[in-house]
Write a structure and sequence with these properties.
mainly alpha, Serine Threonine Protein Phosphatase 5, Tetratricopeptide repeat, 2 strands, ANK repeat
Length: about 350
């Protein structure tokens, strides 16, 4: 079954139906088989129905409604969404299962929570108007915690994709702060929204969740939140302290970085499980304040990862996936003069 593109064009779908009809009327066996799979008459209505069924929709009208919903959500049109849901209330909750980049399916609220990632360009960007979309969906009956048994709640999705404004709307609507993702989730299986935001470097969402009362369960998450006072560093294992340093670097928690290095955490330590390194991660995610602080504490700008990439290389790679305005340009300016050329 084909999937709709990230931004489906209804005119293109009409052309597909007309092309199918012309081929069937011309005696093409494959086209005739497609049309006859839905009805005996070789006409436009059955050609349209065949195209709709091939995309997984029960009717041509259902396919058009889905395309309309995608366009409205992608255009961040809250007024248009309210009008659509007044005509088609089911679209507030009906899964968007034909979105090619979400094989588990996505509810409209999940889709809104994922808008910061532009699948068509493979770029992260800010979407200031997404929060009003969430308001409209919730008012139309979208469940704030998603359907029971889903892979993750909309709040976890917003945390993973870094939309703090959508996360705030969901929290105000009563979202469960301590809900966890399923074991089969593609994010952090069994993790809360706070853990997802921490692991994926979504600092603004971390701050929103902590302020709302999300539980900070250990030293590593405390480092992401910027407060490790509840965990005596002398009682933490070297691995815990290293993971905390990596997390603090990713979230630009400078005082935490200082405290962990002062406690003996190696500034150039590498996480044994994921291969993460404080300076490389800070560079890859465009964290200039962390990069400067780690360098001042002795981090090596020329330490390469398993693929031979320096922090500068990782910064440049990360910059290509972010819209303008991130810290990658500043990180590149810091690292470029002190990065040695690759050995020949």
């Amino acid at each position: 079954m084909p999937s709709l593109p990230a931004r489906p064009d209804f005119q293109q779908l009409r052309h597909q139906a007309r092309d199918l009809l012309r081929a069937a009327q011309g005696g093409d066996a494959a086209a005739l088989a497609r049309v006859h799979a839905v009805g005996t008459e070789v006409g436009l209505a059955n050609a349209q129905l065949a195209v709709a069924r091939e995309y997984g929709f029960a009717s041509w009208a259902r396919l058009k409604a889905e395309v309309d919903r995608r366009e409205i959500l992608d255009d961040v049109d809250a007024a248009g969404l309210a009008d659509l849901l007044a005509r088609e209330p089911r679209l507030a909750v009906a899964e968007m299962t034909q979105w090619c980049d979400h094989p588990l399916g996505a509810s409209p609220l999940d889709y809104v929570a994922m808008l910061r990632y532009d699948t068509s360009r493979d770029v992260w960007r800010d979407v200031p108007g997404a929060a009003p979309l969430a308001h409209v969906l919730l008012a139309a009956g979208a469940p704030v915690d998603g359907e029971p048994g889903g892979p993750e709640t909309p709040l976890i999705t917003a945390a993973s994709y870094g939309d703090a404004e959508v996360a705030q709307v969901l929290i105000q609507a009563g979202a469960d702060l301590e809900a966890t993702s399923s074991p089969t989730s593609g994010g952090v299986p069994g993790g809360t929204a706070l853990l997802h935001a921490a692991v994926f470097g979504m600092t603004a969402v971390v701050d929103v969740l902590v302020k709302a009362g999300a539980r900070v369960g250990d030293l590593v998450i405390g480092a992401a939140a910027g407060d490790i006072s509840g965990w005596p560093l002398g009682e933490a294992s070297p691995q815990q302290r290293l993971l905390a340093l990596i997390m603090a670097a990713d979230h630009e928690r400078l005082a935490v970085i200082e405290a962990l290095v002062a406690a003996g955490t190696p500034v150039d330590g590498v996480d044994e499980i994921w291969g993460r390194h404080p300076l490389r991660l800070a560079a890859a995610n465009g964290r200039p304040a962390s990069v400067q602080r780690l360098l001042a504490l002795g981090a090596d700008p020329n330490q390469r990862d398993a693929d031979g990439l320096t922090p500068l290389d990782l910064c440049r790679a990360g910059r290509s996936h972010h819209a303008a305005g991130t810290g990658h340009a500043e990180v590149e300016r810091i690292l470029e003069p002190i990065t040695a050329p690759e050995p020949s």
